[in-house]
Design brief:
mainly alpha, 22 helices, about 0% strand
Length: about 400
C-alpha cells in the first residue's frame, strides 16, 4: 500500500489543532445517476433470493475493484476529512491490516484529546463544573433530525449525562491506547473517580433512551465495563429486548434502530475490531438477523447493511446467505464516477460518506485477522513526542 501518512508533527499542540497531513489531493468527478436510489432498492429486494445471490453480475466491478476505488478516493483526498473521520478511517483499517502507516491520524487525534480534554479530566468533580460543561456539550451537538432532537431532549432531562457521556468517551479512548496516567493524561484518575459517581443505570436502562440512542448507548455500556466502573451488559440486554414492539409491528425507524443497535452489540463486544466474538454468546442477535433477513436486505441503508455483514465476519460466519446478499448489494450500489457508495439520498459527500464506505471497504478487505490496540507506548513516533515516556 505504501506509506500513506508521512511524518509525525513535532509539536504536540499543532498536531492537536491541525490533523492535516502531507497528501496530494486528487479530485474525482462527483456526478452520479439520479436512478441510484431506485437501483439500490431493486438490488436489495432481489438480493434476498438464493438465485439472485448466486447469479453472476456481468460487467459489474468485483469486490476487490470496488475496494480499490473506494480506498483511492478517500486516501487521495484524506486531507479533506475532519480529524474525527480521519481517525475513524485510519484506526479501523489499522485493526484489520496491522499497517502502521495508519497510526499517524490516530496519534494526531489522541494529541488533540490531550490538549482539549485536559480541563475536563482535571475539573470534572469540581462543584458546578459538570453543569457548566453540560450546557456546552448540548450546544455543540447541532441536532438536525427528529431523532437528534429527541436525544438532546432526553439528555437535558437527565442531569449532566451529556457531559458524563462525553467524558466517558474521552477517558475510554485514552484507556484504549494504554495511556491512562501517562504524560498528557495525568488526571485520568480524577475523571474516573467522577465517572464512578454517575447513576448510569437510571439513564441507560430507560426504554425511551434505548430506542432513541440505540447503537450509541451500547458503546457506552462497554466503555463502562472496560473502565471497571459498572457492568450493565445483562441488564441492558434485557432492557433492549423489551424496549421495542414485536417485530411485525416495528415501524421503519424502529426497525432501523433495532437492527443498528444489534450490530453494535457485536461491534462493541469486539472492541471495534480488536477481537473476534463468540457466536454462541450472541446467538440471540444472529437469530434475529436471520429471522428478519428479507426486511434487512429490503429496507436497510448501506451503513446498516455493512455492519450486519461485519457482525457475521466477527463471529467467523461470513459464509451465511445474508452476508452474500449484502456483499452483492454493496457492489451494486457503488458509483464509479463518485468512486464511492452514495447514500440512499444520492449524496456523495466525502465526510458523510466516510462511515458508509469504510464499512464496505472493511468487508471487501477482510482477512479474518485482527490487530488490537494500538498500544501507543509501543510505537516510537508517539514516544518521541513525549521525551519523559518510557515503555512500561
Amino acid at each position: 500500500m505504501g506509506n500513506l501518512f508521512l511524518g509525525i508533527p513535532k509539536n504536540a499542540k499543532s498536531a492537536a489543532t491541525n490533523a492535516t497531513f502531507n497528501r496530494a489531493l486528487t479530485k474525482q468527478p462527483l456526478m452520479m445517476s439520479s436512478l441510484l436510489a431506485v437501483l439500490l432498492t431493486i438490488v436489495l429486494f432481489f438480493a434476498s433470493s438464493p438465485q439472485a445471490i448466486a447469479a453472476p453480475v456481468p460487467g459489474w466491478y468485483s469486490e476487490s475493484e470496488v475496494a480499490t476505488k473506494i480506498q483511492e478516493r478517500f486516501e487521495s483526498e484524506f486531507d479533506r476529512l475532519p480529524r474525527a473521520e480521519q481517525k475513524h478511517y485510519a484506526l479501523r483499517l489499522y485493526r484489520i491490516t496491522g499497517d502502521e502507516s495508519y497510526l499517524q491520524p490516530v496519534i494526531a487525534d489522541i494529541l488533540a484529546t490531550a490538549w482539549f480534554a485536559s480541563e475536563d479530566l482535571q475539573r470534572a468533580a469540581e462543584p458546578g463544573y459538570a453543569q457548566y460543561r453540560q450546557g456546552q456539550v448540548l450546544q455543540r451537538s447541532h441536532p438536525h433530525s427528529p431523532r437528534d432532537f429527541l436525544r438532546q431532549d432526553l439528555m437535558r432531562r437527565a442531569g449532566t449525562i451529556a457531559f458524563d457521556r462525553h467524558l466517558l468517551y474521552e477517558v475510554n479512548k485514552i484507556n484504549e491506547y494504554g495511556l491512562l496516567g501517562t504524560p498528557g493524561f495525568e488526571n485520568t484518575d480524577k475523571a474516573l473517580d467522577y465517572l464512578r459517581q454517575v447513576d448510569w443505570a437510571a439513564f441507560m436502562l430507560d426504554p425511551e433512551v434505548i430506542q432513541g440512542f440505540s447503537a450509541k448507548l451500547i458503546n457506552d455500556i462497554y466503555y463502562l465495563v472496560d473502565l471497571d466502573i459498572i457492568d450493565l451488559r445483562e441488564a441492558y440486554t434485557r432492557a433492549f429486548q423489551g424496549a421495542f414492539p414485536p417485530d411485525d409491528q416495528l415501524t421503519a425507524k424502529e426497525f432501523e434502530a433495532k437492527t443498528y443497535g444489534l450490530t453494535h452489540v457485536i461491534l462493541s463486544d469486539s472492541r471495534y475490531f480488536q477481537k473476534m466474538v463468540d457466536p454462541v454468546e450472541f446467538s440471540w442477535v444472529f437469530e434475529w438477523f436471520e429471522k428478519n433477513s428479507d426486511r434487512i436486505l429490503r429496507e436497510s441503508k448501506p451503513d446498516v447493511l455493512a455492519e450486519v455483514a461485519l457482525s457475521y465476519l466477527l463471529a467467523n460466519q461470513g459464509d451465511r446467505q445474508l452476508v452474500a446478499g449484502i456483499r452483492q448489494a454493496l457492489v451494486w450500489a457503488f458509483n464509479d464516477k463518485a468512486q464511492m457508495i452514495p447514500s440512499t439520498a444520492c449524496r456523495v459527500d466525502l465526510r458523510t460518506g466516510e462511515h458508509r464506505n469504510l464499512m464496505a471497504l472493511m468487508i471487501f478487505k477482510w482477512e479474518n485477522k485482527l490487530y488490537p490496540g494500538p498500544q501507543l507506548l509501543e510505537f516510537d513516533p508517539y514516544r518521541r513526542l513525549w521525551p519523559e515516556l518510557t515503555v512500561r
